[in-house]
Amino acid sequence: MRSKLFVPGSRPELFAKALAGDADAISFDVEDSVPEDGKVRAREQIADFLRSEAARESLRKSAKIIIVRINALGSRHFEGDLMAFACPQVALLNLPKAQVAADVQRAADALERAEHRNGVSEPIRLLLNIETPRAVRLAAEIADAHPRVAGLQLGLTDLFEQLHIDRRDARSVHAGMFAVRLAGAETGRFAYDSAYPDIADLDGFRREAEQARQLGYVGKSCVHPKQVGIANEVFQVDELDVVAAERIVDAAKAAALQGRGAFLLEGRMIDGPAIRRAEAVLAERRRG
Fold first, then answer.
1. Which residues, in sequence order, are bridge partners of residue 154?
2. φ and ψ of 212, to 5 deg
């Protein structure tokens, strides 16, 4: 999931176009991009589209991942969102404003009930937004709150705006990315990068995406289609990395036959962490 394109639920004319585009995932949104008085209508429009034959046929032909960012737990729209989007077409529900582990547990329990009522047999996973100071501090507990949690998504805009932190300060961006990445790693969940709101600043988008890639994030959110190609390029598995990983894995197998867990390869000491990283690179390549 190198790229994830946000599509406002209030813009149905964009739905089919987004689905036919280059983003690995489409994140339909009924939260921040939709005004309060338009949320119910946006929900209905997305649900109708996802259940349409045209959408089903498109999804059968592609590997597109469908995500819906719903309204927060405790909002008057939460239960209605779950009932609308607990359907086989949706792979992930993006839960905003999760503050503590109990929030995730309550959301997961409510989602399970919605799936049962809708006859959904394949459990839908959760992508949790980490976008408040408290959530950053408790990110590992939040991530580990329920088996449905697939990953953590950093929300830098929400986080920085409330704290009056300069979004263009690379040091602050790195600090936020690093904290969420470690929380994901501690609990075995992937970390997904924030959206970059300045659509005209493609160089800034690329710099932030490259920083996220260096920290081990799996992809970046996009708010405009012209950001998608950059995200796909930055998070594409490098063929040189694949070749190096193959050499490490092959050498590790040979070393294991000799009873060695650590060995020298081309002047570099290789041990367990490097072997696991190489195996992860090859697994990512197979998925791609």
1. 130
2. -65, -40
CA distance 34 to 44: 13
Neighbouring residues of 241: CB distance < 8 A, sequence distance ≥ 6:
281
179 with 276, same domain: the answer is no
Are residues 116 and 75 both part of a single domain?
Answer: yes
Q: Count other Cβ atoms within 10 Å, centred on residue 256.
A: 12
155 has a pLDDT exceeding 90: yes
Bridge-based pairing state of the strands 268-270 and 263-265: antiparallel
pLDDT tens track for 180-233: 999 999 999 999 999 999 999 999 999 999 999 999 999 999 999 999 999 999
Give me the half-sphere count of Cα atoms (radius 13 Å) on the Cβ side of residue 201. Answer: 11
Placement of tokens 């197979």 in the chain: 286
Instruction: From 258, 243, 249, 240, select the one nearest 278 (Cα to Cα).
Output: 249
C-alpha closest to that of 98 among 85, 111, 115: 111
Q: How many domains does the chain have?
A: 2
Q: What is the mean pLDDT of residues 177-182?
A: 97
Please state the pTM of the whole predicted model.
0.84
Kindly list the distances between the CA atom of residue 80 and the CA atoms of 27, 48, 73, 74, in Å, as whole numbers in the listed order: 18, 14, 11, 12
Residues 280 and 158 in one domain: no
| Residue 156: its H or E element | helix 156-163
Lowest mean pLDDT among 51-60, 64-73, 126-135: 51-60
* Same domain assignment for residues 36 and 85: yes
Distance separating alpha carbons of residues 39 and 71, to the nearest angstrom: 9
37: buried, middle or exposed (CB in 10 Å: 19+, 13-18, 0-12)?
exposed
CA gap 178, 95 in Å, rounded = 21
> Token digits for 84?
């609308």
